[in-house]
Design goal:
Largest sheet: 5 strands, antiparallel
Radius of gyration: 47 Å
Bound molecules: adenosine-5'-diphosphate
Strand order of the largest sheet: 2-1-7-6-3
Helix content: 40-55%
Number of helices: 15
Low-confidence stretches: none
Oligomer: single chain
Distance between the termini: 102 Å
Number of strands: 19
Length: 494
């Protein structure tokens, strides 16, 4: 008996024996500890006395079944959670004990039923593990289901195992209709899809492959596929985890863009050919008008009354301005037709030449010119000359009437590009006008005050952008402007 008691107390499970008068005769240490009732209090009492809450509970019914019919009962934690109010106390933490309970007859030596044995096992850690596992599984499933990318797993035979709602939307088929079906047959080119699957299994990874998928409605979808080999969920065989992103819109947009850019290129070429031909051919009749006006002026000059002479000089002036305009248009249409010629150009020399060309205007305006150190760069000499001449010419033209013009030409090397600037102390440009200034025929000041064809800055912009650079202006109206332009260091024609 003493040995039996020791044995009971050394077991890692709860042991309760109920005699046929329903009183408790064995209450081992395990159960005493977890029920928090010592053996001295439990022995000789009934379960219902110890735990009034058990009244009508399945455990008491199970005990009765043992006595009345000798029938055992297994109470698994799934169907009978926490049969007895047991707890585990760790420091301040009191945790309920998840249990699995077996209630069965206890036979005497002669095979006669003498008592009822209740065995209680602690399943807390197993239940916790199980719950944790379920949580992780549910979480992974949610990630799979909520993904905006279409996801599918495919086995070694190329059959679809699991699909998410996005994949079902992408294909227009239900999950049940896809499961077990050949993955490759969803695609327009089954052969291409097979080669994708084959290579993905062989390389264990496959990135960014574009295939065309057939939707159940007969329409086609362009999809970007990525795949990785992962262990199978239900067997040891590896399977493919494939994500498919619908890029039909992107591909359509790219096609439209390519079409538009072709059209644009064609119409640009046509336009510049037209501008060239028109301006070239327009000069011919204009020259005739100018020379005959000159003849009339010479022949009748003195004989003409004052008002007619004034009309004639307006006509001559108009023809002269029109010629200037046509020449500028010609120049504008020619920029970019030289296939980006490049040579080593000493920019200091170029600036010097442009100052020589502007000598008259500089002297007239008494401008002060400050030219900083300038580098030798790979570019087109003539184009640079046009740029500096236009910018310095503008700095002279748009000077303030309140002060003598001061113009500074400078350079700063800026990671990967040459940046030049022309700074003046002239009338300036309002910030909201600064983009317009580079447009063709975008005059910002009244024509009567400043003569010009309003193409100069448009030509500068075309030259700079043709070489892959940028041009912009920083200005404070009333104080002056700084025009910057860049030339990429490895400048080539764009
Ligand atoms: P234009 O050839 O008639 O001088 P641009 O195309 O060179 O014309 O310049 C466009 C407009 O930008 C000009 O009408 C003028 O209003 C403004 N602009 C250009 N350069 C300057 C400057 N340095 N200071 C102030 N305004 C300027």
């Amino acid at each position: 008996m003493a040995a039996g008691k020791d044995l009971n107390n050394s077991l890692d499970l709860g042991v309760i024996v109920i005699e046929d008068d329903r009183r408790i005769s064995v209450w081992n240490d395990w159960i005493a500890h977890k029920a928090q009732i010592p053996a001295a209090k439990a022995l000789g009492r009934t379960l219902a006395e110890l735990f009034p809450a058990l009244e009508g509970a399945p455990l008491l019914a199970a005990v009765e079944r043992v006595f009345s019919a000798g029938l055992p009962t297994i109470m698994s934690h799934h169907f009978h959670p926490r049969v007895l109010p047991l707890v585990e106390v760790r420091g301040r933490v009191v945790e309920p004990v998840e249990q699995s309970v077996v209630v069965r007859p206890l036979l005497t030596g002669e095979g006669r039923q003498a008592a009822c044995l209740i065995q209680v096992s602690d399943l807390t850690s197993a239940v916790k593990r199980d719950r944790h596992l379920r949580k992780i599984t549910a979480y992974s499933r949610t990630l799979f289901d909520m993904s905006a990318d279409a996801l599918v797993t495919v086995d070694g035979e190329g059959r679809m195992l699991e699909t998410n709602p996005s994949f079902e939307t992408l294909t227009g088929r239900s999950g049940a209709g896809l499961q077990g079906q050949p993955f490759c047959e969803v695609f327009l080119s089954v052969e291409e899809a097979r080669s994708f699957v084959r290579q993905a299994f062989a390389d264990r990874l496959r990135h960014d492959v574009t295939l065309t998928l057939r939707h159940a409605d007969g329409g086609l979808r362009h999809v970007l596929l990525n795949a990785a080999v992962i262990p199978g969920a239900h067997s040891d065989d590896p399977c493919l985890y494939i994500s498919a992103r619908d890029i039909s819109h992107r591909i359509e947009a790219q096609r439209q863009l390519a079409r538009k850019s072709d059209e644009l290129e064609r119409s640009n070429a046509e336009l510049s050919a037209f501008a060239y031909v028109a301006s070239h051919d327009l000069r011919q009749p204009l020259r005739m008008i100018s020379s005959y006006l000159g003849l009339i002026e010479r022949r009748l000059g003195t004989a003409l009354p004052d008002d007619l002479r004034e009309f004639l000089s307006f006509a001559v002036d108009g023809a002269r301005r029109m010629d200037r305009l046509i020449l500028d248009l010609l120049e504008y249409s020619r920029v970019g037709h030289d296939d980006g010629r490049r040579e080593a150009v000493d920019v200091a020399e170029v600036v010097n030449d442009s100052l020589l060309n502007l000598k008259l205007a500089i002297e007239e305006s008494q401008a002060e010119l400050v030219v900083g150190a300038l580098p030798v760069i790979e570019s087109d000499r003539l184009e640079l000359l046009r740029l500096f001449q236009n910018l310095i010419g503008n700095a002279l033209k748009y000077r303030s009437l309140d002060r003598l013009p001061r113009i500074e030409v400078g350079y700063r090397g800026d990671g990967g590009e040459h940046c030049f600037f022309v700074r003046d102390n002239g009338i300036g440009i309002a910030a909201e006008q600064s983009d317009r200034a580079f447009g063709i025929f975008q005059r910002l000041v009244p024509a009567e005050q400043y003569e010009g064809t309003v193409i100069g800055l448009a030509i500068c912009k075309k030259i700079v952008e043709h070489r892959g650079g940028r041009i912009w202006v920083d200005s404070r109206p009333g104080f002056g402007s700084t025009f910057f332009f860049t030339v990429p260091e490895d400048a080539a024609a764009s």
